């Protein structure tokens, strides 16, 4: 297995796009396209889009953001993307059941690993009306070395530094949990409350009435309400999933300066090291 470095090796700005089922039907089978199915494995084996390779989103769950945890994430990315035959220049189409957070978690992890072109199947496998198969495709493993993109991942220490500097110019912490969690009325882990100074983001804005991603022109003004165009947005939630979909929504709306704090409240809310704001909002 290639060696892993915790530090960033080079900067690769990923391109994020939406793929319609019609577009996928026209391009499926092209050599540079890799289709990744992120649904539960039982659903994958019950029937999937031809050529789809299965990838379990839980592989990229990050309970902490210290050095050993990030080294593990990078090792898992190197192993899993190599096994799936993904190259940095592949156009990877990520397909969940719909536009759920686990598909977004995989898309974010691919960008963090250094994959350059990521598409999300808008509406997911449920929107696919073509053939489904039960046999897995033959895949040739390709050596892939994760090239950690620190621009896309924020650690607890980075969030803490922003809090201690009272949200310095250029950094904005965004809370992608529910309004009740933000207000300290309930919590998925440890303490209640929020990261001091964090702004609330309503994740329902990310999807249109039909469950597809909201149009960029509709989403951009909502994004501008919580983060300026020249600010780095650090997004957190309970365990990184909702934050990942918000990260994708920000990218689609044109806000490229976004990062996920993947351990989120599972880490922040369980350690007295990290301050909590719990006043009413």
From TrEMBL:
Keywords: Repeat. It comes from the Bacteria. SMART domains: RHOD. InterPro entries: Rhodanese-like_dom, Rhodanese-like_dom_sf, Thiosulfate_sulfurtransferase, Thiosulphate_STrfase_CS. One of its GO terms (molecular function) is thiosulfate-cyanide sulfurtransferase activity. PROSITE patterns: RHODANESE_1, RHODANESE_3. Coiled coil: none annotated. Signal peptide: none annotated. Residues 29-134, 167-273 form the Rhodanese domain. PANTHER family: THIOSULFATE SULFURTRANSFERASE. This is Rhodanese domain-containing protein. The lineage of its organism: Bacteria, Pseudomonadati, Pseudomonadota, Betaproteobacteria, Burkholderiales.
């Amino acid at each position: 297995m290639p060696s892993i470095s915790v530090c960033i090796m080079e900067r690769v700005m990923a391109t994020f796009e939406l793929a319609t089922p019609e577009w996928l039907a026209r391009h499926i089978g092209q050599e540079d396209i890799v289709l990744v199915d992120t649904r539960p494995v039982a659903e994958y084996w019950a029937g999937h889009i031809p050529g789809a390779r299965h990838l379990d989103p839980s592989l990229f769950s990050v309970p902490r953001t210290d050095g050993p945890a990030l080294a593990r994430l990078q090792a898992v990315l190197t192993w899993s993307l190599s096994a799936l035959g993904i190259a940095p220049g592949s156009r990877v189409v990520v397909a969940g059941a719909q536009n759920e957070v686990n598909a977004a978690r995989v898309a974010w992890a691919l960008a963090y690993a250094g994959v350059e072109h990521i598409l999300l199947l808008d509406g997911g496998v449920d929107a696919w009306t073509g053939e489904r198969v039960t046999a897995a495709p033959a895949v040739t493993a390709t050596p892939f070395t994760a090239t950690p993109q620190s621009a896309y991942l924020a650690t607890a220490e980075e969030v803490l530094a922003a809090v201690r500097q009272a949200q310095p110019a250029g950094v904005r912490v965004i809370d992608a949990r529910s309004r009740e969690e933000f207000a300290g009325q309930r919590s998925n882990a440890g303490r209640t409350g929020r990261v001091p100074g964090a702004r609330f983001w309503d994740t329902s804005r990310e999807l249109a009435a039909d469950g597809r991603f909201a149009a960029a022109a509709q989403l951009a003004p909502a994004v501008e309400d919580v983060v300026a165009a020249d600010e780095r947005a650090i997004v957190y939630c309970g365990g990184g999933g909702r934050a990942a979909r918000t990260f994708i929504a920000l990218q689609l709306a044109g806000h490229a300066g976004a990062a996920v704090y993947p351990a989120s409240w599972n880490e922040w809310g369980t350690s007295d090291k990290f301050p909590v704001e719990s006043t009413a909002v």
